[in-house]
């Protein structure tokens, strides 16, 4: 006899875990299916955890979640071939509990999260891939897995299967992903003793540093690099649009290799032992590329629904929040004795519209387009800014005023005054 | 040890006073393994190592020979003397024809209880591991498997058995303090073969097994020998050409075979290559493969991971070819060429060919 | 037929790191897996179950998290699972481990008589291949190591015929049950779990036994106390003092490099030249 549940959640990433946790806590029967060997084994993230979304789900998460370091310093670097200009913002206010942001290692975090979900009563089955959705006409009535005797039924299925949701695509809920709507990120974890990290980054205890990088490291492609300090390791990575990788004919691996050789970056990794190399897609199409989010008996949450704020590198928090709202929608309907029809699931979208999720998605909806059509942000500016800094800081008998003039000139040579103003305007418009 | 904890407090200089029961145990034993009329070379290697330990402790080195009553079995005692033993315990019985756990465990346990050696070494072969594990449990004593180094703390009369741990990334030294004998197994080719000295002789002490066939439950129905012709004998090869993942494609492995043919060498490989199915499992060199000690080891496209290194570190001359000048293999090879294996290998094969041709002409 | 399979949860040693300064193991994030060798033992037991009908009980001694290993075994088709866990077991070496497992097997036997005990060839963390023989000796069972195949089982005559790898060949052995078999790797391939078994595994209530429940009365036989061996030192291998001499020549032509290499090698090791001539 095939099994039947109130809800099946596909995927045990942050979005799936959030949904399953909420549902199980409310007493619905939940089955969660994850294709990885364990939750988190296939997942990739930088990773910064924003406390806010998780706090709503698990208020006491700080007690036992595997958090690495809380961020007390954010650096922003613009790199050219052999130097960088940057800002460092460090504040002791970040050192006050409860902390707002942490670094974490996804494989451990997901495992912890999933244990909470299972304790709440959801049934988890790993190493099992959902191959397609079972449909009765337009209505989703369950899932089919890749195992013998693999059909399982449910009143609703939540698709939390991450970027490039094959299930949604197969069922026709989601169009093919376009290369210009996804970034490909690669990252490595370099292990080194805790003392080395503390010394190198000027931190103590659980304090951590985040470095965001733009510039020549991406070879003119639209993308950014990042470096995060964990307890006993440093995460380094870089991500660029898939379409750019295709055009530039560099492999992500080569890009990261070269980035690691950068004279400003290399010393931060020296002596470390590289253990984990992973590549993953990030949906960066934004609001304009979002698929339908619900239908008869189904909902999409997290990366599968394009819920990523590329500018602020937020994803997991949107994933958790969308997962939570999807679950709350079902819980509410169930309490009212209503079925999980398309008409009723509309409430999910309404909830999202109310929350910061859709507001942010809308606010940044033009960002991807601006960057796509204006390569100078990743090409010319890093060079110019870095040149400017070098000119100002080199002591060579030239007065500062002349130097400033030279800098302005060089900016204008590469990019007309109108161009410069236009760029500023474009950014402002996209962000507004 | 089923799990190696991080090092406990070092034992330091604390004097360990052996109690009288343990003091009664004296001498070093090496179990002489043989099958189908031949001594396993690992036993001779162990005699070489045992000799050193015995000299350090000022005790005798004994071989233990168990087998069918015949000349061949007796001749193993002489082999043991030639390789360093002072005496041999000889147990001859029809029941010891083929290796079976029960009679061998009983025989060896009885010998130990009667003659009380302080240290007993066995080869880490299928036979040796089967027997050592059983005898150690019957005697309720400690056993350290797959040692790579043996030493003694003369004062404490304690065997310092060193072996890889945690997937080979670390070594640990293990001691059996309050139990005797102290047992250890060592894999073939880890220890060098001692010089054979045919002028040496020694005493033979004979003993009886005292068992009947009807007491033995397990019966050997048949022995199916391996087809020997095409089985590579890596551990005893004088020259080995090994390829790693740097060979990139199974087709490229032909370059390895070509060089091996010119040199009359065996072909070895790293684990990823074996797992990818490019070559036979028998050819894997390293911690979970074979330990080799050839006169010449040529490592091509091999990074030199510790798990590979432990299997070939004892080679007389190591030549490495790797495109990455920072590859760890260059830390312990004797000679290195930094470059693309696919272009270097054919050239090297030609160079060897030419060299051998002139060498032959020269006589 | 009742078969007990001993499995162990081990850290995936491929992912273990060593602190470069203190030489301690950095365990953070190292995933735990079922000792890969034990899966061959489990699959061999499941094959017997398919052929003759059997109850397969998996047994492990380890920390509470080792439960995951047992659950995995259930998903492949094992019927029952017992986790023996107690602080008293900490620091057990092979002798103490086999003592604890033997005792637990005796308890399982009381519930339903056991015909066969299976273990893997060895673990990837301990790597000793001694626990199997140790259990057999304690339980006074026939011991068959490095078995590549169980050919037949005759339950009425209490007989089993196996193929055993030995130096230079394969022994065909007949023995009586109950006996303990350690299974060689590569002898079979683990099956793919069915959906129904996946459900069973996630819902299965693993039996958790402490020392007393496992029938161990004397604390001195397990843990550190019951372990004759002690680890006195853990250290990193010493790097070789001299690094490789890198062959260089102006042209950097493979041919010149090769010739230069051989000239250097044979100048330093003239005997080697003769050896090669001999073998070639
Ligand atoms: C390099 C990188 C850095 C990032 N940095 C940050 C950061 O610093 N902060 C931040 O908030 N976000 C960051 N993100 C984004 C964040 O990781 C994602 O937004 C978040 O993981 C989305 O969660 P999810 O649950 O929707 O999807 P996922 O985490 O991808 O989870 C989907 C799960 O579904 C499973 N699955 C997929 N298909 C199937 C199937 N058919 N059957 C069964 N299971 C299936 C997968 O195995 C996976 O476990 C980063 C992403 C990347 C790639
Ligand atoms: C418990 C355990 C047991 C293990 N047991 C063993 C064992 O018994 N034996 C074993 O070998 N491994 C073993 N390993 C695996 C071991 O850790 C390494 O992964 C393995 O040895 C690496 O094999 P490799 O050198 O072929 O591959 P890699 O490490 O990938 O190295 C390939 C090398 O080829 C070089 N290269 C690439 N292209 C070229 C080119 N064109 N020309 C020249 N060079 C090139 C690269 O620079 C690199 O150095 C074990 C691991 C574990 C965890
Ligand atoms: N803690 C344990 N629990 C269950 N089985 C074990 C345990 N330790 C070892 N074994 C079994 O004994 C075999 C040999 O282990 P080892 O002697 O550690 O190499 C393994 O393959 C397992 O089948």
Question: What does this protein structure show overall?
Answer:
The complex is a heterotrimer of chains A (432), B (363) and C (280). Chain A has 432 residues and is an alpha/beta fold. In chain A, 37% of the residues lie in helices and 27% in strands. Chain A has 15 helices and 17 strands. In chain A, the strands form two sheets. In chain A, strands 3, 4, 5, 6, 11, 12, 13, 14 and 15 form a nine-stranded mixed β-sheet that branches. In chain A, strands 1, 2, 7, 8, 9, 10, 16 and 17 form an eight-stranded mixed β-sheet that branches. In chain A, α1 runs parallel beside α9, α2 runs parallel beside α9 (316-335) and α9 crosses α10 (342-354). Chain A is globular, with a radius of gyration of 23 Å. The N and C termini of chain A lie far apart (55 Å). By secondary structure, chain B is of the alpha/beta class. Chain B folds into two domains: 13-215, Rossmann fold; 229-358, TPP-binding domain (Rossmann fold), CATH 3.40.50.1220. Helix content of chain B is 31%, strand content 26%. In chain B, the strands form four sheets. A seven-stranded parallel β-sheet of chain B has the order 7-11-6-1-4-5-12, with helices on both faces. A five-stranded parallel β-sheet of chain B has the order 15-14-16-17-18. Chain B has a three-stranded antiparallel β-sheet with strand order 8-9-10. In chain B, a hairpin with a 4-residue loop joins β8 and β9. The longest helix of chain B is centred in the last third of the chain and has 22 residues, at 341-362. Mean pLDDT of chain B is 91; it is low at 1-13. By secondary structure, chain C is an alpha/beta fold. Helices cover 31% and strands 28% of the residues of chain C. Chain C contains seven helices and 15 strands. The termini of chain C are far apart. The mean pLDDT of chain C is 90. Chains A and C meet through β7 of A and α5 of C. Residues 6-8, 35, 37-38, 41, 59-62, 94, 97, 101, 119-120, 122-123, 126-132 of chain C line the site of adenosine monophosphate.
């Amino acid at each position: 006899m095939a099994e039947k549940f109130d809800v099946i959640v596909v995927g045990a990433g942050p979005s799936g875990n959030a949904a399953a946790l909420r549902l199980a806590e409310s007493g619905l029967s939940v089955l969660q299916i994850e294709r990885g060997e364990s939750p988190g084994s296939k997942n990739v993230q930088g990773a910064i955890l924003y406390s806010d979304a998780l706090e709503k789900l698990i208020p006491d998460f700080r007690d036992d979640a595997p958090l690495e370091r809380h961020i007390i310093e954010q650096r922003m670097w613009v790199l050219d071939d052999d130097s960088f200009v940057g800002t460092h913002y460090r504040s002791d206010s970040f050192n006050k509990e409860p902390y707002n942001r942490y670094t974490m290692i996804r494989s451990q975090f997901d495992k912890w999260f999933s244990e909470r979900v299972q304790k709440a009563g959801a049934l988890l089955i790993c190493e099992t891939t959902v191959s397609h959705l079972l449909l009765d006409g337009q209505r989703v009535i369950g899932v089919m897995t890749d195992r013998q005797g693999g059909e399982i039924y449910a009143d609703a299925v939540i698709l939390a299967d991450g970027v490039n949701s094959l299930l949604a695509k197969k069922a026709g809920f989601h169009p093919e992903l376009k290369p210009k709507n996804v970034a490909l990120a690669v990252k490595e974890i370099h292990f080194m003793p805790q003392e080395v990290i503390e010394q190198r980054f000027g931190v103590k205890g659980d304090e951590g540093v985040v470095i965001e990088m733009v510039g020549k490291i991406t070879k003119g492609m639209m993308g950014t690099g990042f470096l995060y300090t964990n307890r006993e390791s440093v995460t380094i990575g870089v991500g660029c649009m898939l379409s750019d990788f295709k055009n530039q004919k560099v492999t992500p691996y080569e890009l990261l290799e070269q980035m690691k050789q950068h004279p400003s970056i290399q010393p931060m990794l020296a002596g470390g032992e590289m253990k984990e190399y992973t590549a993953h897609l990030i949906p960066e199409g934004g609001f304009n590329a979002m698929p339908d989010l619900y239908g008869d008996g189904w909902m999409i949450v997290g990366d599968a629904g394009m819920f990523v704020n590329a500018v602020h590198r937020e994803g997991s928090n949107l994933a958790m929040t969308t997962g939570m709202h999807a679950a709350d929608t079902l819980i509410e309907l169930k309490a009212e004795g209503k079925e999980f029809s398309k008409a009723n699931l509309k409430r999910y979208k309404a909830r999202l519209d109310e929350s910061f999720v859709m507001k942010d998605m809308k606010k940044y909806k033009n960002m991807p387009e601006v960057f796509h059509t204006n390569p100078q942000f990743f090409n010319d500016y890093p060079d110019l800014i870095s040149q400017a800094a070098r000119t100002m800081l080199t002591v060579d008998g030239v007065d500062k005023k002349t130097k400033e003039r030279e800098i302005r000139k060089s900016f204008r040579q590469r990019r007309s005054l109108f161009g410069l103003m236009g760029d500023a305007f474009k950014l402002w418009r996209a962000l507004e | 040890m089923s799990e190696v904890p991080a090092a406990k407090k070092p034992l330091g200089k604390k004097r360990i006073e052996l109690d009288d029961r343990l003091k009664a145990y004296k001498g070093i034993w090496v179990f002489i393994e043989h099958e189908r009329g031949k001594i396993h070379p690992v036993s001779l290697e162990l005699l070489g190592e045992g000799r050193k330990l015995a000299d350090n402790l000022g005790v005798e080195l004994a071989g233990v020979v168990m087998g069918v009553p015949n000349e061949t079995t007796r001749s193993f005692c002489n082999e043991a003397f030639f390789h360093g033993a002072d005496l041999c315990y000889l147990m001859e019985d029809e029941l010891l024809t083929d290796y079976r756990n029960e009679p061998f465990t009983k025989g060896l346990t009885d010998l130990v209880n009667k003659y009380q050696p302080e240290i007993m070494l066995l080869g880490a072969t299928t036979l040796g591991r089967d027997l050592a594990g059983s005898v150690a449990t019957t005697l309720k004593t400690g056993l350290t498997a797959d040692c790579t180094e043996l030493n003694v703390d003369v004062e404490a009369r304690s065997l310092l058995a060193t072996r890889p741990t945690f997937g080979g990334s670390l070594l640990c030294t293990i001691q059996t303090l309050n139990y005797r004998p102290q047992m250890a197994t060592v894999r073939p080719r880890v220890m060098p073969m001692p010089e054979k000295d045919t002028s040496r002789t020694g005493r033979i002490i004979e003993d009886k097994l005292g068992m009947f066939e009807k007491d033995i439950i397990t019966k050997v129905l048949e022995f199916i020998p391996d087809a020997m012709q095409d089985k590579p004998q890596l551990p005893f090869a004088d020259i080995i050409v090994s390829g790693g993942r740097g060979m990139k494609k199974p087709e490229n492995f032909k370059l390895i075979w070509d060089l091996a043919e010119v040199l009359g060498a065996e072909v070895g490989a790293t684990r990823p290559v074996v797992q990818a199915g490019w070559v036979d499992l028998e050819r894997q060199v390293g911690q979970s493969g074979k330990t080799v000690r050839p006169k010449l080891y040529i490592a091509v496209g091999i990074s030199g991971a510790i798990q590979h290194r432990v299997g070939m570190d004892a080679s007389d001359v190591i030549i490495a070819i790797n495109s990455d000048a920072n590859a760890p293999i260059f830390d312990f090879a004797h000679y290195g060429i930094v470059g693309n294996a696919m272009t270097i290998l054919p050239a090297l094969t030609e160079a060897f060919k030419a060299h051998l041709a002139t060498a032959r002409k020269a006589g | 037929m009742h078969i007990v399979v001993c499995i162990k949860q081990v850290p995936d040693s491929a992912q273990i790191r060593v602190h470069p300064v203190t030489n301690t193991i950095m365990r953070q994030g190292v995933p735990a897996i079922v000792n890969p060798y034990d899966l061959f033992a489990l699959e061999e037991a499941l094959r017997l179950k398919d052929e003759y009908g059997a109850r397969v009980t998996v047994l492990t001694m380890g920390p509470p998290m080792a439960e995951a290993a047992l659950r995995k075994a259930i998903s492949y088709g094992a019927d029952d699972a017992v986790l023996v866990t107690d602080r008293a077991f900490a620091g057990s070496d092979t002798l103490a481990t086999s003592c604890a497992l033997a005792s637990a097997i005796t308890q399982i036997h009381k519930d339903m008589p056991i015909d066969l005990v299976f273990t893997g060839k060895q673990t990837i963390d301990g790597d000793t291949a001694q626990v199997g023989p140790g259990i057999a000796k304690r339980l006074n069972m026939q011991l068959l190591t490095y078995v590549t195949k169980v050919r037949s089982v005759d339950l009425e005559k209490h007989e089993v015929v196996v193929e055993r790898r030995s130096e230079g060949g394969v022994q065909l052995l007949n023995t009586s049950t109950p006996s303990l078999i350690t299974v060689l790797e590569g002898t079979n391939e683990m099956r793919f779990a069915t959906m129904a078994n996946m459900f069973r595994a996630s819902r299965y209530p693993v039996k958790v036994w402490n020392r007393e429940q496992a029938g161990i009365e004397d604390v001195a036989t397990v843990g550190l106390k019951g372990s004759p061996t002690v680890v006195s030192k853990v250290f990193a291998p010493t790097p070789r003092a001299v690094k490789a001499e890198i062959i260089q020549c102006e042209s950097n032509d493979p041919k010149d490099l090769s010739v230069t290499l051989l000239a250097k090698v044979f100048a330093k090791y003239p005997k080697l030249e003769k050896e090669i001539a001999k073998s070639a």
